[in-house]
Amino acid sequence: MIAALIIVFREVFEAGLIVGIVLAVTRTVPHRNAWIAGGVLGGVLAACVVAVFAGALSNLFAGMGQEVFNAAILALAVVMLTWHNVWMARHGAELAGELREAGRAVVEGSKSLLALAIVVGVAVLREGSEVVLFLYGVLAGGNDSGLSVALGGIAGMVLGALVCMLTYFGLVKIPTRALFTTTTVLIALLAAGMAAQSAAFLEKANWLTALDNVVWDSGWLLSDSSLLGKALHTLIGYTDQPTAMQVVVYLAILAATFALMRLYGTPAKAGAPAPAE
Amino acid sequence: MSFSPMLSKLSLFAATVLVAAAAVGAAHAQSATEIQLSYKDKKFDPAEISAPANTPIVIKLKNLDAKAMEFESKTLKVEKVVAGSTDATINVRAQKPGRYEFFDEYNEKVARGALVVK
């Protein structure tokens, strides 16, 4: 049971952190619960589909289907997170300011929610399919340990939900004014980390072989398979043996986010109406 | 800024990166050491495999069990789900000499093996 708990918790931990952050980011947006719940549900369903077709997925791209699939959904999450940040740079002030038209704010807000719901779905999908395969393997085995493993699995998921709540309540303690800056930085780092992970998957698939030298090895200091290392891996993309390509991609995403926010974000006091669609 | 134009710009950027990555990958032709490995009844066969140092390694893993397993090695930075009764290819980048343990994450205590790089 403990083994099952640990395996499941390890997988849902990352999704828990990400859902917690997204909940904090969208704190004031109407209807956010429905969107995020939709993201989680969509992720779970997609995880089941991926688990069922795991064999077929692996066989794509000369046996590198899993790696390419992971790289692609991570890239999708990076696009969504970056888009959210850029969008908030433009509309964040409107949403919070007294000038907002309630109706429009809801419409615009839901676009941003869609992006974040996709991010949540991707996070759940990535780790979820492994949990599904693990639990299915045990339950299909039909031995008497099935029940205890199922209990362990449920306990692991409850712990994952706890991580999510701790992240959320930790973040919303931050005063509203500082929260916006904090979440902007968090999301930018999250996106950069996911982009580097995406690059790592392409490296494993041998699709990306340039700059594949390991830049540093900080495993002696903080292994990325320890709990703290894993948390930092999710949050800021920490890895103890990054390749030059991963570092380049990481920095490129940070730079691109910053540049796009400067380019498309309107200064809060300019008062220029946003261009019509 | 409306949703679609910016999103399409970003997607275009992501697509460009992926295509560029694929092009680089196609040009890759470094010779790798290929190792056959099979997995049955929570055991790796052989339990210890070896490879020369400083060359890429390709592990061809046959999962002979009906259940899925997850091949994982923390030191080799590999994590791969292998569905029941299927084969998988695992690319490992060139390594320094040493002993690198791997295991089935779903049966971490019993299903273990090691790659020795010399």
UniProtKB/TrEMBL annotation, chain A:
A single GO molecular function term of this UniProt record: ferrous iron transmembrane transporter activity
Membrane topology note = Multi-pass membrane protein
Instruction: Work out whether the entry's keyword set contains Hydrolase.
Output: no
Q: Does DNA repair show up as a keyword for this record?
A: no
| Record keywords, A-Z | Membrane, Transmembrane, Transmembrane helix
Which cell locations does it reside in?
Answer: Membrane
Q: Which domain of life is it from?
A: Bacteria
Give the CC-aspect GO terms. Answer: high-affinity iron permease complex
InterPro entries membership: FTR1/Fip1/EfeU
Residue ranges crossing the lipid bilayer per the database entry: 6-26, 33-56, 68-87, 149-171, 178-202, 247-265
What family does this belong to? Answer: Belongs to the oxidase-dependent Fe transporter (OFeT) (TC 9.A.10.1) family.
Protein known as: Iron permease
